[in-house]
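does this look right to u?? uridine-5'-diphosphate version
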Amino acid sequence: MEVERKQSVILVPCPYQGHLTPMLQLGNILHSQGFSVIVAHTRHNAPNYTNHPQFVFHSMDDGLQRIDMSFPSVETLYSMNENCKVHLRNYLAAMMEEEGNELACIIYDSVMFFVDDVATQLRVPTVVLYTFSAAFLHSIIMILQQPEKYFPFEDSQLMDPLPELHPLRYKDLPFYVVNNKIPEWDLEFHRATCDIGSSVAAIWNTMQDLEDSTLLRLQEHYKMPFFPIGPFHKMGPLDSLSSIFEEDNSCLEWLDKQAPNSVLYVSLGSLAMINDKELIETAWGLANSEQPFLWVIRPGSISGFQYAEALPDGYEEMVGERGRIVKWAPQKQVLAHPAVGGFYTHCGWNSTVESICEQVPMICRPFIADQLVNARYLSQIYKVGFEIEVIERTVIEKTIRKLMLSEEGENVKKRVVDMKQNIVAAMEIDGTSHKNLKDLVDFISALPSRLPPPTPVVVGS
Ligand code: UDP
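got this back:
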């Protein structure tokens, strides 16, 4: 039955897998709550329209020519922010002249910070979406307030704790660190993403019960309402396909043949790259652990190689039926499969939340940015994972055995089961995510269609 739609919302996602997915999931959630959803997306990495017939799509010319979209360089992100401005402004201006237009607000990924400039000029309310954890944003803000306190540091300090950023150490500072320094452009970029301009609220793909005190501290900083309504992929009525890569579903049949809780799922997300040495150490670590494994090796993710040519000769024949390698997996289904007992992950926020929701404990191998923070929280605070700090076959083998076969591993499993139950409780009626979603719907529905004009500054008063 067709429901009568409330106002519309425009979503502006950042066009990388880990950002696009939660924005489309948020679209599903808001659509199920009666809003019309328009997705204004860049030309590069555009979502597949046929997977989301319930949305209206609008393509913005991002002006990027022959760009390598395999990794979001800061240059690309700045260009996208600059190039999409005019397009969004024209689109919005035309829309606002239309009769019967009932645009409630624009919801944008915090990385697409140009949106707030454009919308403010036209006095349209904006809401920012954070696709990462509150712990990550909090550490970024703390560091931006006093970068000289952290950078540069000495090699000898790498493992030293940073009490005010507990449980982080210098080694885990979530910036682009080169020679123990941080480049000025990286600081500038983070300043831009943390400046939310005149946005009126923030939506989070996290859970209030999980990050309550950090969310409160951030809310004091930003002085606006926060709506933590995660986990997005479980809060909507359907989780439509949003993969940029083609999923290989054959691995589900292979999983069907494996014993419960026996398989280690290995995936480093959509962006991380490793070198051939790490590929080989991981390959031997997996083989020597003697545990069944499902390993995603994304084409182009091994530096200097097209695919997995650097695997030891005859590797796949040697591991035989005990191991399965695919180019891209239906990850949420894999994690939900009863055969999967552990996840060797780069700790992207989506992977982290998806794993906890399926009560799968983790082995953490973070690379950059929020992954470093997530890995520390998973291993040190939530204690639902073990961190791998040395990429060496014997270390990998031992850590896999510890997770899958030891008493310590069983304790980690028990804690992740508890975490999952807390998330389930948050989604129930009267749970925090459920309640926050209701508040968000009321909040968006009550937004004025145009913000008041800015108060003029009276010089000399
Ligand atoms: N993913 C997937 N299949 C894979 C690997 C990853 O569907 O083989 C999905 C995963 O479920 C998650 C997203 O890709 O939703 C990766 O996002 P995340 O934040 O974990 O990491 P990123 O790719 O941004 O580094």
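The chain has two domains: 8-242+431-446, 250-423. idk if thats expected tbh
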